[in-house]
Amino acid sequence: MAFRNRTDAGRRLGRALSGYKDQHPVVLALPRGGVAVATEVAAALEAPLDLILVRKIGVPAQPELALGAVVDGADPIVVRNDDVIGLTGVDECEFKAVCDAELAEIERRRRRYLGSRERAEVADRVVIVIDDGIATGATTRAALRAIRMRNPARLVLAVPVASTEALPEMRQEADDVVCLEDHEGFGAIGFYYSDFRQVSDQEVIDALARFPARGRGSTRKPAA
Predict the structure, then answer these.
(1) Quick check: 120 and 147 in contact, CB under 8 A?
(2) Are 15 and 198 in contact (CB under 8 A)?
(3) Which of 21, 67, 91, 99 has the most CB atoms at less than 10 Å from its CB?
């Protein structure tokens, strides 16, 4: 099945995750596309919403191809795709330069999206990590490893669509993986959405305003 847009995908994913509602989960979204999916899940589960700031480390000449990913934190977590690094011939100096640039973008997003906003507590909670899809899985693996270090009671990954090849690794990182559909020969995530327009910074900020990071989520009707 194809998804009309991220809102449609989020609503379907919310229904698939309904069994977690009584466990009072925390929903963490990968911005920006994952936020539009996660708001619908947070509404369905009446859950608080927060961000996990992670950036792909792309090949300099081909940014969509992931050398790895980096996650925000006092000690940033870097996940490497050594196969891609070897195939592309990217050296350590180039890798570090791209990694540093992505850390700078993470810092910009933290200031822009979160400011002084209170962050969600994830220790000893059921945590549901959400993105709009998984291609290579580098950013998702990095996000899951970073959250695991914060000691959740249960770590759940939920996505509308993913590469078939990526899912076994995701199941090694998460306690539960909920994926509505997976495909071999995956291509780009946008192929599985009729409308895959870019999510703006302001949309992320507005979504976070609707769903406080502490307590139960917004009870207002999700945006159409």
Answers:
(1) no
(2) no
(3) 67
Coil, strand or helix: which one is 32? coil
Contact 81, 66 (CB under 8 A): yes
Which position has the token pair 């795709």? 81
Mean pLDDT of the chain: 90
- What is the reported pLDDT for 215? 57
- Overall average pLDDT of the 132-155 stretch: 92
Distance of alpha carbon 217 from alpha carbon 14, whole angstroms:
13
- Quick: pLDDT tens for 58-92: 999 888 788 988 988 767 888 888 888 999 999 99
Cα gap 73→165, rounded to integer Å: 29
CA distances from 36 to 89, 117, 180 (A): 36, 19, 16
Whose structure tokens read 């899985």? 137
Q: Retrieve residue 85's tokens.
A: 């690094």
Q: Tell me the whole-structure pTM to 2 decimals.
A: 0.86
Gap between the Cα atoms of 69 and 89, Å rounded: 17
Length of the chain as a residue count: 224
The two tokens of residue 142 are 């990095």
Cα separation, 153 vs 193, whole angstroms: 33
**32: preceding bond cis by omega (within 30 degrees):** yes
CA 97, distance to chain mean position in Å, is 23
Contact 129, 156 (CB under 8 A): yes
